[in-house]
Amino acid sequence: xxxxxxxxxxxxxxxxxxxxxxxxxxxxxxxxxxxxxxxxxxxxxxxxxxxxxxxxxxxxxxxxxx
Length: 66
Description:
Blueprint: H1 28-32, H2 35-59
C-alpha cells in the first residue's frame, strides 16, 4: 500500500531491513511460461530472415549498377 515504515536521514549510509510476506498467487509470467519469449524469438528470426532476403534481392537487381 506504499506506507513508509522506516526511513533514514539524508546522506546517511544506512541499511533498512524488513520482512515482506510471500506471494501466494501466480504472476502473469509464471502463468504463461516460456510462450512470450518463444514468440518474440520467432518474430526476431522472421524479421532477420526478411531483411536478409530483401538485401539479397536488392543486390541482384539486373541493371542496377548502370
